[in-house]
Amino acid sequence: MITRYALCARRVVCDATENDVTAIGIVEDFVAVGFPLVMSRLALVWAFAREPDEPAQLNGVIKASVDGESLHEAPFNIDFQGKLASRVILNLLGFVCPKPGLYKLTFSVGGEDRAFAVFRADAAPRPEGAPAPPPPGGAFMIA
Fold first, then answer.
1. How far, in Å, CA of 111 to CA of 76, rounded?
2. What is the model's pTM?
3. CATH for 44
4. Domain for residue 143, yes or no?
């Protein structure tokens, strides 16, 4: 199996007529005002091809990590439907970046990491004299 490409974006659209994929808002490095940061949606795309003698159905795992620390793992299925090329599109409704760092989303099949997409989330510098940010989990006031 060979990887053609892997990416993450805010949204991915797959055209039903042409089977074309359009990625909207490809996620690259960014600066956030505070952490944890919740991304309301995140789409992952992995395109790949297999040899004719390789299985047509496989099980995989998507692994999310920050600076090498595991955040989450979830299974997914691959079905080539009689073809030699396919793609997996995973739409996540909510992705939490708990801290600044290098985020890696890894596609794994058969215990072997096959492809990944990465982005760096950095904290914006705090202006001099600005109050300290609230503790993780938020802050509130009761009047």
1. 13
2. 0.83
3. 2.60.40.10
4. no
